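Reposting from the mailing list since nobody answered there.

I have sequence plus structure tokens for a pair of proteins and want to know whether others read the tokens the same way I do. The first protein:
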Amino acid sequence: MDNMTVAPESAGERLDKYLLSFFSGYSRAKIQKLIKKGRIKVNGEACSPHHFLKEGDTVTIDEAPQPSEETPAPALPAIRFDLDIIEETDEYLVINKPAGISVHGAEHMDETTLTDLLLKKYPEIAKVGSNPDRPGIVHRLDKDVSGLMVVARNENSFENLASQFKDRTVKKIYTALVYGKVEKDDDTITFPIERSKRGFKMAAKPLNQPGKSAITKFSILKRFNNYTLLKIEIKTGRTHQIRAHMNAYNHPIVGDNLYSTRKTRLKNKEFGLGRVFLFACELEFTDLQGSRKSFRADIPGELDDLLKKIK
């Protein structure tokens, strides 16, 4: 068993990255596995690979990683995102997530996540919730989608918010620009959703086929010649729900290359937007005191610029 004390110059580093500096030539994936198995602890407690260290922390290694023929994983890229905090309380944080950053990590992913940024500024969140890889997270937005999210800062808040998402009492409103002129002024899409055979995407199924219940309501904000700006409210929170539903409705979202057609992918490339034209503009939930809290976010600049260009 080896012990290491974190020096001042290493304070603020992620645990897995810190260990890589001592075990150069070893795979980050192997180090992360040891951390997740509890063989590497900080101050005697198990933690996640993205735990941020403090000066004086004691890192205990029950079993040093063995050499691997794998190519060492690269260090995390420089952080290019800032946390946009809309409201901060002792219970929760409401943030405006930018497009281009994932909410939490996944296997074989070595990029900075929203969770990394949250833990760096609010380390107490590390112990909130049931999943150490997703501390405080009660819902998520796709990497290339932006907008409002709420994050729990303590266990009571986590349970309160999680139960509201489960009971579908959280109000979530999105704005989306889709291809084509949508005929109906408003409609409700109820295609069941399940993971497709391709694995990395979801499929909206006909109503008579099995799948998870999914409800997406929309109304028209503005019609253009070849596009429609929509206000969308979801009653369920399935993975990629809005994107899969709008594609199945034959109006894929601008900028979405996953749920798309060849024609819209070519148009997306022409636009060069670099993200999905979908953002969570309104969020409403109930706090621990029973008060209803409502938040709104302005349309991001790059989306507003695109709206000014189309006809």
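The second protein, same order (residues first, tokens after):
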Amino acid sequence: MSTRYEFTLPRSFQPAEFLGGRLLTRADDARWLVSQIVRKIASRDTDPWGCARLHSDVLGRVMHKNTVSAVVEALEAGGAIETAPYYAGVKAKGYRLAKRYLGDRSVQVPATDPRLIARIEAERERRHADEQRTRWLPVHYALDREQQAVTITQDADAILDGLPDHSRLCQHVLVSRIQRRELPFSVSSTGRVFNSITGLKRELRQALRLDGEHLGSVDLVCAQPALLSMLLLAKTHPNGPKHRETYKHYPGPCLPACPETGPDFSAFASLACGGSLYDRLMADTGLDRTSVKLGLLRDVLAKRGKYPSVVETTFRREFPSVYRVIRAVNRQDHGELIRLLQHTESWLVIGLVAPRLLGRVRITTLHDAIFSQRQSIARVADCFRDVFRELGVSMALKCEEN
């Protein structure tokens, strides 16, 4: 008997609108592809340009191989999806959902093609086994167990109605998963954890509960710049802090060979680790905080191509030697530094801080943040500061009651 599988789709998506003639027999292939895009975008498992990257070999193992290209081309030509080019050996092809669907609620649609269902299950088992074998550490199994205490109240439905159209679909996907008790947990190649709250907007986090209690959070201010400062300061010990409850085998970060920093680095490190770098760039550029953060990520830390950017121009003028380091690290691949910073973030939050809290307070993680019950937030912040002291660094923290 076939395993039941459901696609997560925009309510208004209908394959028959895009697939004509004999290609309509591949409707479940189209549903699976769109479902994969929706799930990745909802969890923010995308590149800085919002593209969900899907490897062609995965598409070939799941979809009918001889019609993969035809299905993709039909969906793109009809305006259901947009695509971005792949880079051989570097980056898989990118996919985005058309804007027409972003204001939809999501629906669960059962798969009906037995062959496709069997292939989906085989691919899921293959990926899960491979990921657990190569990426999962004891801390990941513990965090996966911890998130079983995550629930969401009915208030989420009213909050969803008030969200902007462009975010409603993906947020409904995430809320529905928690309501159905589908709590995904995966570990990326950089060590980043993707779980049931990854991608959930701040407004909806108000409806989250951990063991029935309201949540608070502790996260790094100016996380990516602060982590870059830590790497450049070369303060990290190769084995991490000497603490009996730290997972010693969690691999630490290391910058590749790059130019030396100059006098401007001191100002950069002070602003980044003090949590005020974005404020400085906002004052210098006249942009709002959201634009500055996006510009720093897309146009400085991971710039691809040559195009004008006021954030890049300002950063290069204020911190020339730091800019040279960034360009040197990204010389062969514009995403190299971002991957290194994500690895550093995971090493710090998942590898060093989380193990000191597991079994003592309830926690769940969100990249550079740790969520816990409100009464435990001070203890979480203290653990971060203990790790900072052992590493010989200082970073600004933001403590919130969501």
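Reply #1 (J.P.):
I read it the same way you do. The two ends are 45 Å apart (CA to CA).
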